[in-house]
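Case 154 in the screening queue. Each case pairs one protein sequence with one candidate compound; here the compound is D-ribose. For every case the pipeline is the same: read the inputs, emit a complex structure as tokens, and attach any notable structural observations.

Predict complex for case 154.
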Amino acid sequence: MRIAIGADHGGYPLNEQIIEELRAAGHEIEDFGTHDGSRPDDYPDYALKVGEAVRGGQADCGIIICGSGVGACVAANKIRGVRAALCGDTYSAHQSREHDDCNVLCLGARVVGSALASEIVRSFVDARFTGEERHARRLEKVLEIERRETTGDQ
Ligand code: RB5
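Case 154 output:
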């Protein structure tokens, strides 16, 4: 799978660990940094890069890591076509794919431990949208909200 990943200074060095693990599992990584946790930077910059890679089809899914995961998730969900899930447990991680067809995982490096983060990433990456009628119906309603917000129609 092609996975885009980005992290601000708060998400470093968890991003390095996750990249290494995903590469070892055979995934192709588009790495947007940061590789320097000592320099304060801005999570929206990474959310935008990862989100655009997913929306543009260069990546099958994305991972964004910041201190709490909250800012990254808020920013990523502003990008049309992105459905970002902030996950601190493995159940939410796989269900966000299976039911909600999320395509970006957000993690809080200051919240989850490194071992749990690895399991959350595996749960997310390995799961797929089930396409069941009730989930497809709900997803279509989410997409309709996005369409209305984009066009300004009421
Ligand atoms: C950076 O200190 C921190 O605010 C950022 O990484 C993130 O947690 C925002 O939600």
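Case 154 observations:
- The longest strand covers residues 2-7.
- The two ends are 38 Å apart (CA to CA).
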